[in-house]
Every structure is written in structure tokens, then in C-alpha cells.
Design goal:
Helix content is 39%, strand content 23%. Strands 1, 2, 3, 4, 5, 6 and 7 form a 7-stranded mixed β-sheet that branches. Strands 9-10-8-11 form a 4-stranded antiparallel β-sheet. Helix 6 (239-259) packs antiparallel against helix 7. It has 9 helices and 11 strands. The protein binds alpha-D-galactopyranose.
């Protein structure tokens, strides 16, 4: 059998939605994401050559590259980074034909890039018998994103894609990388709607917020904002940095409260408070996100709602009464449309909507 005739090995990984704990991961704090049903699949097989051919179905694009000649295409840099980092872990990587297909919506804050990185590394682990556990895979995936895709992210997305399940949330301490399963409140379900607005300022705004957090921690003499013990300590900061740090401090507290078996109503209140903090103290919301979140919060089938992911556009997450999510989505999106916006339902995705009763 020639190398190209072997059946491909397929690595898979899900996207994620973060329920609580936004902009806390790069401050060594706590996050509470859950995996979504939509997945990315990376099929790979040795091609008998020394280079790589990467086909991305969703983009209708193909890239060819090797270790010596990295791909100029941005979409290929995620996969290239994973290959380089797996090789640095000691793997002998042959030339490969790689094909990517994905159901994870792109560019809305559901971690399509983390799903691609984790799926690629899982494929390599299986193909080459690599001894990488799921936390190590998340760490390598995050490095691929930072060092090769040039996005200075925290580790939440890659940890969630690598370790979270779809039927319960995952509490992650992003300092120690310890994780604990947290069941969703009884009789509740997760709904994700896209605000339909692009995350145009996400990269510059994200880096600016990171810089502000680092400046706040430095002025307080702390290694990171995780080490702030009392809210009053923030009084020493100038006004802007105090608000940024207050978001991180209160958001960490909200995650820990939600993880202590909060009921649906209490969990929802924490999500609402998170949105207010992201809007007022952290200033990463937009008028469209605020509108969509208000419509969700006002619906009787919703326990709580907030923007999710980095902000500056993209998606909102709501905790709904189980069984009410489709009605919530239809009614809220109709009102959002009447207000002049174009939103859409992302989770439950189209393939699950029928079964979600
Ligand atoms: C993006 C980053 C994550 C995290 C969130 C904000 O999704 O990739 O690391 O910082 O923003 O919570």
C-alpha cells in the first residue's frame, strides 16, 4: 500500500462557549466554559513526501508548506504551529496530506481556532502515538496560537476544547490548570445567539485590556490580578485601571460562586452581573451586544444572559429554562431584527434544534 492510500487518522475537537469568567484567564483567574456540539475534524495521512498539503473545506482553500518554508496563508499558521510544536516535543513528523472540516462558527467567539489546534494535535497524537495528555495538548495549542497565529490569547479556549464536555461546565483554575466538572443548574440549558456584528476591534482592544491588567497588577506589586485579596486594595489605582481590575476581581468571585452549586436563578443573576461589569468596568461590549443581552434578559424563559468571549461584537450566551430555548431564540431574534439588527442562532446548532425539547 502506498502512503497516500492509508485511511486517514481523524482528530476532532469541539468549540466552546464561556458561561462565566471573561477576561480572567490572562490574569491567572477562574473560567467556566462548556463545550458545544459543533466540532472541527482534521484528517491526516502520510503522503510519502517531506512537505504538507493542507485543505480547508470551509474556506475552499489549499496551502502547501514544509518545516523549512512556513505557509504565508494565515489559516494554515494554526496547523503549522501545531506541527512545529509537536516536533519540538520529540515527534518525528512525516509529510502529510491534511484536510480540515468544521461546524464551529468562525469569528463569533466560539473558539474555532482552538478547536482547529486541539483537533490537529489530537490527530498527530493518534497518528504518531505521542504521549501528550489533554492538558499538554491545550498548552501546545495555546502556544501555536500565540507564537504562530500571533494572537496573544489566554489558555481558556484551548483547555475548554481539549477537556470540556457538552453536558456540564468545566471550572478551570488558569494558574494551576486544575479543573473540576460543574453540572449545569437543574432544568436549564444553554443558548448562544450571534449579534451579527463583526469583532472588528477585538485584537487591538484585547491587547489593550491585557496591557491595562498588567499595569494594574504591577502598580499593586502583584504577580497578577489573581493575587488581589480584597476589593479595597484597588483604591490605590487610578480610575481606569481600578475599573479594569474591579471587573477581574468581581468576575473571579462570580465564577467561584456559580461553581458552588448555584441554582438556575442565582446562576443567571451572576451572568447578568458579569455583563454589566464587562460593559461598564471592562468596556468590551457594544450597543448591539447590549441590545441583544437586554432582550434575552427580559424574556421569561431566560435566567440570565451576557456577552461571551472577548467581546467587541460576536456572540451572547443565555441560560434558559430547559425546553424554552427555541422559543426564546425565535422571539428574541425577531425583536432584535425589529430593532434593525441581524442576529442568528448558533447553539443549539441547526442539527440539534429539533431534538432540544
Ligand atoms: C478570547 C481569548 C481567551 C479569553 C477570552 C476572554 O476568547 O482567546 O483566552 O481571554 O477572549 O475571556
Amino acid at each position: 500500500m502506498k502512503p497516500g492510500d492509508a485511511p486517514p487518522v481523524v482528530g476532532q475537537a469541539p468549540g466552546r462557549v464561556n458561561l462565566l469568567g471573561e477576561h480572567t484567564d490572562y490574569n491567572d483567574g477562574f473560567v467556566l466554559p462548556i463545550a458545544i456540539a459543533q466540532r472541527t475534524r482534521v484528517a491526516m495521512r502520510p503522503n510519502g513526501a517531506s512537505g504538507f498539503t493542507l485543505r480547508a473545506e470551509a474556506l475552499g482553500a489549499t496551502a502547501q508548506f514544509s518545516f523549512e518554508s512556513p505557509p504565508p496563508e494565515h489559516f494554515a499558521s494554526y496547523v503549522y504551529g501545531c506541527l512545529v510544536l509537536a516536533r519540538a516535543e520529540g515527534a518525528e513528523i512525516p509529510g502529510l496530506d491534511i484536510s480540515v472540516s468544521s461546524e464551529v462558527p468562525m469569528g463569533v467567539g466560539l473558539s474555532s481556532s482552538a478547536a482547529l489546534e486541539v483537533a490537529t494535535l489530537r490527530g498527530l497524537r493518534e497518528l504518531l502515538g505521542l504521549r501528550l495528555d489533554d492538558v499538554r495538548i491545550a498548552q501546545l495549542a495555546q502556544r501555536a496560537e500565540i507564537e504562530y497565529a500571533q494572537v496573544r490569547c489566554g489558555i481558556m479556549d484551548q483547555m475548554a476544547s481539549s477537556l470540556a464536555a457538552t453536558d456540564r461546565a468545566l471550572l478551570i483554575d488558569t494558574r494551576s490548570l486544575e479543573c473540576r466538572d460543574v453540572p449545569l443548574p437543574a432544568r436549564s440549558t444553554v443558548l448562544v445567539l450571534d449579534s451579527g456584528t463583526p469583532r472588528s476591534l477585538a485584537a487591538s482592544g484585547y491587547n489593550q485590556r491585557r496591557g491595562e491588567c498588567e499595569a494594574a497588577a504591577a502598580q499593586l506589586g502583584k504577580a497578577s490580578l489573581r493575587d488581589v485579596g480584597r476589593l479595597e486594595e484597588l483604591d490605590a489605582l487610578p480610575e481606569l485601571l481600578r475599573r479594569r481590575a474591579r471587573h477581574v476581581f468581581t468576575e473571579n468571585a462570580r465564577v467561584l460562586r456559580a461553581a458552588q452549586a448555584a441554582d438556575a436563578a442565582a446562576f443567571g443573576q451572576l451572568m447578568n452581573a458579569s455583563h454589566a461589569s464587562l460593559r461598564d468596568d471592562y468596556e468590551v461590549s457594544t450597543p448591539a451586544l447590549d441590545r441583544l443581552v437586554s432582550l434575552l434578559q427580559a424574556h421569561p424563559g431566560v435566567h440570565g444572559a451576557r456577552l461571551t468571549g472577548a467581546g467587541f461584537g460576536g456572540a451572547c450566551v443565555a441560560l434558559c429554562r430547559a425546553g424554552a430555548e427555541q422559543q426564546v431564540a425565535d422571539e428574541v431574534l425577531a425583536r432584535y431584527r425589529a430593532a434593525g439588527h441581524e442576529g442568528r442562532q448558533l447553539v443549539p446548532g441547526p442539527q440539534q434544534a429539533v431534538a432540544s425539547t
